[in-house]
Design a protein that fits this description.
Order of helices and strands of chain B: HHEEEEEHHEEEEEEEEEEEEEHE
Strand order of the largest sheet of chain B: 6-7-8-9-10-1-2-3-4-5-11
Mean pLDDT of chain A: 58
Largest sheet of chain B: 11 strands, antiparallel
Distance between the termini of chain A: 57 Å
Structural class of chain B: alpha+beta
Strand content of chain A: under 5%
Shape of chain A: elongated
Number of strands of chain A: 1
Number of helices of chain A: 7
Largest interface: A-B, 63 and 77 residues
Low-confidence stretches of chain A: 54-58, 75-79, 97-156
Strand content of chain B: over 45%
Oligomer: heterodimer
Mean pLDDT of chain B: 85
Chain lengths: 195, 315
C-alpha cells in the first residue's frame, strides 16, 4: 500500500468519513511509528484550525488494537446472516475503545487543571479550560468530562473564597438536619468537611 | 460506521422494559414508611466528585420513637445523633454554628406529589449489599431537576442505593449500602461519643427575623420550606436565607449586602451541588445572591436572576 493512500485514509478517519476498509487499513498501519507521527501531526493541524486545546499524547491506537485483538475475525468463507453481525460487533467494540480512550484522556486533563469554577471576571488569572480535546471527530457534547471528574473548589481569593464554603455547608446541613428520609443529606454534609 | 446506529437501535429496543407506574408508587410509599417502622444497622459509602467516604448507621424504632446514629468511618470521625428527626448532637466540624432551624418540618416522601414533576417507573431488579432490590427510576419531566435511581430493598423497603443522574445520564453522586441487617441496635450502639456536641435547640430564634426577599420564578413544584434573616456570627452581616424543595431536590438561596466589597459573579459545581453567585442592584445597594442546590446549574442561575426584594423604598 502506498504512503499516499495511507495518508488519505488517515485523513478520512480523522474527518470521520472513512469506510470500514479504510479504518482497518489505518489501524493495521498504526504499528508503524511514522504513521503514528503523521496522525499526531494531523491532529495538531486540525486543532489549530479548530482552535481546540489539544495535547496529542494519548495513544488510542493501543486501546483500539487491543480491542481488535480480542475480536474473533469473522470467517471469510461463511456467508449468511451471521457474517454482517460479526462485522457489526467489531465496529461497535472499536468505537467503545476509542470513546473510552477519549474519556480517560479528558479526565487526566481535568485533574491537572482543576477546573471547577468559571468566573466572569475578566482580570482574573484563573486558568480556564476552553473545551474538551476532541480526538478523531468524537465529541462528548458540551460537558468537559463526566461530572464525577470535576468539582474541586478552587482557591479563589476574595469574597467568594470566604462565603461559598460557608453557604455550601449551610445548605447541606439544613437539609441534613431537616431530612428524615435517608442518610443522604447527612453524607453530603459530611463530604464537605473532608477536604 | 453506518452499522452503529442500527446496533444502538437494536440494543435500545432490547433494553426497554415494561413500566408499571403504580408499582413504582407502591415502592416509594414503602420506602417512606420503612424508616419510621424498621430498625436496622449497616455500612454505606458516599461518593461524589473528589470525595469518597464510608459511614456506619444505627437506626432503632422503639415505642414509636426513632433513634438514629451516624458515624463516618474514614478520615475525621464525624457523627450525628438524631431522635425523631431532631438533631441532638453533632461532632465538631459538622456543627459550624448552625442550630436546628425552628420551623423545620418533618418531610416524608410523597409519591403523589412527586409524580407531577417526575416519571416514577420500576425499571428492574438488582442486588445491593447482598440483598434483593427493586430499581425505581425517578426521571424529571423538565430540565430543572436531576433524575434519581433508587434501589429499594425487597424485604424491608429501605433505600439500599441511590444514584443522582444528570440529563445525559452521567452519575453525579452515589449513596450505597455495603452491609445492612435488620438486627435492632443496642443502647451502646446508639450512644454518642464524647466528641459529639449537643445542639442547642433553635438558639437564635429571637435573632432570626422574617426574610424580606422572594423569588419571581421557581421551577414548577418548588415551594418555600424555610426562610430567615439572621446575622452571620463571623461577619456581623445580615444574611437572608431561603430554602425551597420539590419534595426531593433542595435549593438554598442566600442574599447578602456587599457593602462595597469587590466580588464577581461566579458559577461552581461541586459534585451534585451547583452554586451560582450573582450581583444584584437594589434600592438598598449592591447585593450578592447565591443559589446553592442539587439542581442543574442553569436552573440555579435562573433562580438567582429572579430574586427580588420586598422592600420598595430605601430605608
Amino acid at each position: 500500500m502506498s504512503r499516499e493512500a495511507l495518508q488519505e485514509s488517515l485523513s478520512a478517519v480523522m474527518d470521520n468519513e472513512a469506510d470500514e476498509l479504510e479504518l482497518r487499513r489505518v489501524l493495521n498501519a498504526f504499528d508503524d511509528v511514522e504513521t503514528r507521527e503523521t496522525w499526531a501531526r494531523y491532529q495538531i493541524a486540525r486543532a489549530v484550525m479548530h482552535k481546540d486545546l489539544l495535547l496529542p499524547r494519548l495513544d488510542i491506537a493501543a486501546a483500539v488494537s487491543a480491542a481488535l485483538a480480542d475480536e474473533t475475525v469473522p470467517a471469510k468463507a461463511s456467508r449468511g446472516p451471521w457474517r454482517s453481525l460479526g462485522r457489526l460487533a467489531v465496529a461497535a467494540s472499536v468505537t467503545v475503545a476509542v470513546l473510552a480512550g477519549v474519556r480517560l484522556y479528558n479526565q487526566d486533563e481535568i485533574a491537572g487543571v482543576q477546573m471547577a469554577q468559571q468566573s466572569n471576571q475578566p482580570g482574573l488569572a484563573t486558568p480556564q479550560v476552553k473545551g474538551p480535546a476532541v480526538l478523531a471527530g468524537y465529541s462528548e457534547g458540551s460537558e468537559t468530562a463526566g461530572p464525577m471528574a470535576n468539582g474541586v473548589l478552587q482557591g479563589q481569593p476574595g469574597w467568594h473564597d470566604q462565603r461559598l464554603p460557608n453557604y455550601l455547608r449551610q445548605h447541606a446541613q439544613q437539609a441534613a438536619l431537616k431530612g428524615t428520609e435517608s442518610a443522604l443529606p447527612y453524607a453530603r454534609a459530611a463530604s464537605l468537611e473532608n477536604r | 460506521m453506518r452499522a452503529i446506529p442500527l446496533f444502538a437501535l437494536l440494543l435500545g429496543g432490547w433494553c426497554a422494559i415494561p413500566a408499571y407506574a403504580d408499582e413504582a408508587q407502591d415502592w416509594l410509599n414503602r420506602l417512606g414508611q420503612a424508616e419510621r417502622q424498621q430498625s436496622f444497622q449497616g455500612t454505606f459509602v458516599y461518593e461524589r466528585s473528589g470525595s469518597f467516604s464510608t459511614h456506619n448507621i444505627w437506626h432503632r424504632v422503639q415505642d414509636g420513637k426513632v433513634r438514629e446514629r451516624l458515624l463516618q468511618l474514614d478520615g475525621s470521625a464525624q457523627e450525628v445523633l438524631r431522635i425523631d428527626g431532631r438533631t441532638q448532637c453533632v461532632s465538631g466540624s459538622l456543627v459550624a454554628g448552625l442550630g436546628n432551624t425552628p420551623d423545620s418540618t418533618t418531610r416524608t416522601l410523597d409519591p403523589q406529589k412527586l409524580k407531577n414533576w417526575y416519571d416514577l417507573v420500576v425499571v428492574g431488579k438488582s442486588r445491593v449489599a447482598g440483598r434483593q432490590a427493586v430499581i425505581v427510576a425517578l426521571t424529571p419531566k423538565d430540565q430543572h431537576r436531576y433524575g434519581f435511581e433508587l434501589h429499594v430493598d425487597k424485604e424491608t423497603g429501605l433505600p439500599l442505593k441511590s444514584l443522582l443522574l444528570n440529563d445525559k445520564g452521567q452519575l453525579l453522586e452515589r449513596f450505597q449500602f455495603t452491609r445492612l441487617n435488620v438486627a435492632v441496635p443496642t443502647d451502646a450502639d446508639l450512644q454518642a461519643s464524647a466528641d459529639c456536641k449537643d445542639v442547642a435547640q433553635d438558639p437564635d430564634r429571637a435573632a432570626a427575623m422574617k426574610t424580606t426577599w422572594h423569588s419571581d420564578w421557581l421551577p414548577p413544584g418548588f415551594e418555600l420550606t424555610s426562610s430567615a434573616a439572621r446575622k452571620d456570627p463571623d461577619t456581623r452581616i445580615q444574611v437572608n436565607s431561603l430554602m425551597y424543595d420539590d419534595g426531593l431536590a433542595r435549593v438554598s438561596v442566600f442574599v447578602e449586602p456587599l457593602n462595597g466589597a469587590n466580588a464577581t459573579d461566579t458559577r461552581t459545581q461541586l459534585g451534585p451541588t451547583a452554586a451560582v453567585s450573582r450581583r444584584l442592584t437594589t434600592p438598598q445597594g449592591e447585593m450578592m445572591v447565591t443559589v446553592v442546590g442539587e439542581i442543574p446549574i442553569g436552573t440555579a442561575e435562573r433562580i438567582a436572576l429572579s430574586m427580588r426584594s420586598d422592600v420598595v423604598a430605601p430605608q
